Amino acid sequence: MKFRVRDLSLTVLCAACYAGLVYFLAPISFMMVQVRVADALTGLVPILGLPAVYGIALGVFIGNLYSPLGPIDLLSTLPSLLGLWMIYRLRRVSVVLGLLSYSLAVSLWVAFMLYYVVEAPYLIAFIYVFTGVTIASVGLGYPLYRYASKIELFKALTSEDR
């Protein structure tokens, strides 16, 4: 896949939207009981492809710069990137399965981080975080995917190599 100016623009736009939503909705974007609404943007990965994968991962990094958990939360970019890649790889099999894979990858890491930093019970933290991430990525992201798939602007931005 050639990386074009359009791809760079989409990457930056996804990063800015994700980070902006995290900052704007910070009270519900961090800790054990969270619904990170920005994770709804994962529903755009099957449509926009790798620019959305890179952009959302960058947005996770930027959004976590001021995390109450400290610098360790910057490492959350790695499981997020893994989950986003799984959405991208599973886009032709099942978008919902890809979004659930993202929820699982992110939740396993965030639960560990909460256990390590604030000594939250791992299993309880996992259940809470998985529920919140799933609400955002599947509950909001899948309808976003369905809706965006029908919009001409998004159709114009996509191509077969995504």
Written description of the protein model:
The protein has 162 residues and is mostly helical. It has one domain. It is 67% helix and 0% strand. The chain has seven helices and no strands. Helix 1 runs parallel beside helix 3. The protein starts with a helix and ends in a 5-residue tail after the last helix.
Itemize the secondary structure elements and their pairings.
Layout lengths: L4 H20 L20 H4 L1 H14 L13 H14 L4 H24 L3 H27 L3 H6 L5
Helix pairs in contact: 1-3, 3-4, 4-5, 5-6
User: What is the β-strand count?
Assistant: 0
N-to-C order of helices and strands:
HHHHHHH
Report the span from N to C terminus: 8 Å
Provide mean pLDDT, rounded. Answer: 94
Which structural class do you get from the secondary structure elements? mainly alpha
Alpha plus pi helix count: 7
The number of distinct structural domains comes to 1
The backbone outline, from C-alpha atoms, is globular
Low-confidence stretches: none
* Main beta sheet: none
Percent of residues in helices: 55-70%
Radius of gyration based on Cα positions:
15 Å
Q: Roughly what fraction of the amino acids lie in strands?
A: under 5%
